Amino acid sequence: MTERADAIVIGAGLAGLVAAAELVEAGKRVTIVDQEPEATFGGQAWWSFGGVFLVDSPEQRRMGIRDSIELAQQDWAATAGFDRPEDDHARQWAESYLDFAAGEKRSWLRAKGVRFFPVVGWAERGGDTATGAGNSVPRFHIVWGTGPGILEPFIATVRRGVEEGLVTLLFRHRVDALTVTDGRVTGTSGSVLAPDDAERGAASNRDVVGDFALTADAVVIATGGIGGNHDLVRAAWPERLGTAPTRMISGVPAHVDGRGLGIAETAGARLINGDRMWHYVEGIQNHSPVWKRHGIRILPGPSSLWLDATGRRLPAPLFPGFDTLGTLEHLRHTGYDHSWFVTTQTIIEKEFALSGSEQNPDLTGRSVRELLRQRLGKGATEPVEAFKRLGADFIVADTLPDLVERMRALEPDAPLDAVRVCQEIEARDRMLDNGFGKDAQVTAIRGARAYRGDKLIRVAALHRLTDPQHGPLIAVRLHVLTRKSLGGVQTDLDSRALTPSGDVLPGLYAVGEAAGFGGGGVHGYRSLEGTFLGGCLHSGLRAGRAIARL
What we know:
Blueprint: E1 2-10, H1 14-25, E2 30-34, E3 51-53, H2 58-62, H3 69-80, H4 88-102, H5 104-111, E4 140-142, H6 146-163, E5 167-171, E6 173-181, E7 184-193, E8 208-221, H7 230-236, E9 249-250, H8 259-266, E10 271-272, E11 277-285, E12 295-299, E13 305-308, H9 324-332, E14 338-344, H10 345-351, E15 353-354, H11 361-364, H12 368-376, H13 382-390, E16 394-397, H14 400-410, H15 418-430, H16 440-448, H17 452-457, E17 473-485, E18 488-489, E19 496-498, E20 504-510, H18 532-548
């Protein structure tokens, strides 16, 4: 099969769809190829919570948050920690992205019908000094409709392009190579896979029933990262984060396997920062898995007590929701693949959110009535209660000795020190006898409740963990959850792929996670959260606009 288009987009996730939608708006012809069935249209973004990073937004100002581009720049630089010669383009991307987040991003999305939940979340709080990593203020804007809500306008534009004859959708088409002619990428070739009715995210067959070849003026790599391939994650695992886990769970489907990165490199693109990655340490096994080792992340408030596998409390400022990679690094040096939250029913009712569109039916379904019932009614949200009842990682007990004994039984090969666990909890609870004290986490909780949004729906009032009025006691076993690659194809600000010598590789573009969300690593070593979807939007938009000018 041979077809001609202005652009070929490889991958039907958010970044690829943004690029394609921009080209449709410019009247260009686009062919989108994806190895998965059409049920997966939208890629990983469909599963997301829909958090978007904005700077000095009306939502922030209404919540009493004073943000600025200067403060965001300070936070980004401290968090990213750019320190490599190859970070030159990433720095440019970071500057451009922050301008986007403080400027066009919100109005551009609103013009497409995207709306935001009025309470701004505070993700990746940091907890160090003013010049340390983390968000100084809340910037996590939840899309009304979560992941599907942010995909909706771009899918609609692409569908309209299909109706107008501008877009060709080729699912079950696996790209195996890029065509390079006289030093320019001029197309793709690959295998046609057998039809498959697998549900979204589930494994599909790899039975080859034919082949294809496509040509175009531009080819866009939008194939994501490596989070679904644990062998690749372990191979890329950096020494600075300790030893790679033996046991991990997956926050992305298995087809997020890095194939597109290898194909781009073979064609001449430069891959950088493969050792920079973003994995969560609050992963729990899905009681109703869709893909192999399917995990869900708890998006925690700051109140749960965090213990390592032996029962030792994590040091400040490694509190829930404060420093993802700092916590990952600390835990990877303990010698064990799991850790624990010890918490209460009161805390999970207010502070446990689960990442994912399917775990937040009220926000995903845009139902105000359901949101009020789930978030402000009695008990935790129904998805959280389901995990408490069905999840393999949850332990519920009325007394501390019973809780600790059951924690030991769940992980018999880890030497959980029962005496130490009790001492940690009792010592923490004594800090509540006064309105002051030396416990940094208690101080952080009090500080969080000074923010109206946290006090309203996100942070529970301080109480003793052993107070039966706030019970039962709950322990949650936490796993490393694979998620994002922070490196990828190095690109310039037009999303054009660069070669190892720093020259543009004509005809090839890279967007989203495949490009390290811009420049081959716009986040540096760490993310500020709400920036993965934002990086897909930004890089896809810049690619679409650049190709439209050809």
